[in-house]
Design a protein that fits this description.
There is one protein chain. Helices cover about 40% and strands about 15% of the residues. The protein has helices spanning about 25-50, 60, 70-80, 95-105, 140-155, 190-215, and strands at about 110-120, 130-135, 175-180, 180-190. It has a 4-stranded antiparallel beta sheet. β3 and β4 (about 180-190) form a beta hairpin. α4 packs across α6 and α5 (about 140-155) packs across α6. The longest helix is centred in the last third of the chain and has 27 residues, at about 190-215. The chain is globular and about 45 Å long.
Length: about 220
Amino acid sequence: MKLMLRLMTVVLLWTAVAGTASAAVTRAEFEEWRARFVEDYRAAARADDRGEGDDWSAAKAFAGSLWPDGIADNALDELHAKHTLFPPERKSYTAPAGVLLAQVVQNSDFAGDGGSVSGATLHPKLGEQPVEIVYTKAWDDGDRVDEFLRKSFKRSELKAPAVGKLQRDAYPFLIFHRVGGKLYLAAFSREFLEIANAVMTMQIASYAPVEAQAERG
């Protein structure tokens, strides 16, 4: 069940493009960005818990980690509108889509630099400004997720492409733009969302019997 891929605003267009030469993104830069994203998410979740979301927007809530001219905020706005971005008051056997996406980001690890391309080659709304590709290791529970991704990408093995090369349907990646020398998230790729699809599918499969038993009392 590809629930995350219903976020059509963040699915990038199919374009087989190669990255261009540029200063490679480092692990330290990625980890510094990830810390900013997690901080933004936790602060936004606390504000939401206090009921401070009347004029909520991802662009404001994630100002420390999102590129304002990108499209990642569209995805987060959509998840917030569906009340799935933050943990619900009632415990659930499966994490809501937005909570799961935040968990995937928090558990992501740097796997390689995919080079720099014009944003428009990936999505018209990203414009002509350069964006940088960062491959991300899937998840702590890597074996089952890797198997899911291999099937999804139709690959015999899951391996990050060569440094500086952007390759579609090969490995999860995030799209960034630099502002003041720092990385800011421009978009979630469809390849990255497949990690969330994998984890959600496994959660549903694991807890369906539990939920059925709970309903029977």
